[in-house]
Amino acid sequence: MQVYFGDPRRFGLPGCALTIGNFDGVHQGHQNMLKRLRAEADLRGLPSAVLTFEPHPREFFSRTEPPARLSTLRDKLAELEASGLVDRVFVYRFNHAFARMEAQAFIDEVLVGALNTRYLLIGDDFQFGAKRSGDFSLLCACPRIVTEAMPSVLVKGERASSTRVRECLAAGNLDAAEHFLGHPYQLSGRVMHGRKLGRTLGFPTANIHLPHRKPALEGVFVVEADTAGGTFGGVASLGKNPTVSQSQDYKLEVHLFDFAGDLYGQRMTVRFLKKLRDEARYDDLDSLVAQIEHDASSARSYLNNLQREQA
Length: 311
What we know:
311 residues, alpha/beta, Rossmann fold, Elongation Factor Tu (Ef-tu), domain 3, 2 domains, six-stranded parallel β-sheet, six-stranded antiparallel barrel, 32% helix, 27% strand, elongated
């Protein structure tokens, strides 16, 4: 899979079969669209391509209260590549100029002029251009592009969408989120140096850098983490650590079971398996340690039961 940033005209690429979207989380609706795109691309002898945006347009328009991001750009690209369905990804910078682009200009300059789109597959609710003035009928009027719309994908009777996944995660319903995603929700990031308070309490943690201000979920969780040294179970806290910090920044801290080593600077992928509780403030460190011990014991029991079920 090739990834292109900025104006792709300098590469002189041949025509493509394209779909457009934010693909935040690459949920089952996205996955079904990519399968349909792959089939149509093969039928026409074209490479399959995705046009996506950075930052997420809703982040751009709501900078003071941005929506929770399900996946970083890096994770999104990794999931698109892992699907095996996409040949090209075009990442366009979403800025003031792009937001003001008229719908017809988007068709002429981006879809036709820059991306050389021959076939276009869009969702049934797709709108584009300044003030979201462009729609399916306008796209169909372009003689250079064969445009088709795909109906929403239903999972157990509900429409699969990034918004629905966010709602499930915010409510702590990880099973429902997994139904829409097709896999457990996960985050990845680089392990950074922290205050190293956990090791003094007997629970050393890996502190994962979060590039976005607002995560999609908060609390204490049973997790599995992929590291350079293998996969480990553990317990994780995602929140603001009110007992030991006054900061309003969110932190992801992961205590790995039966692990010894140095993870600083490495990338780690954390899969959230079960929510144990909401974040809480404790009166003293002894109370905090007692709760961490309880959380760790609950997480170990859950992982042991899961291992027995999978055996």
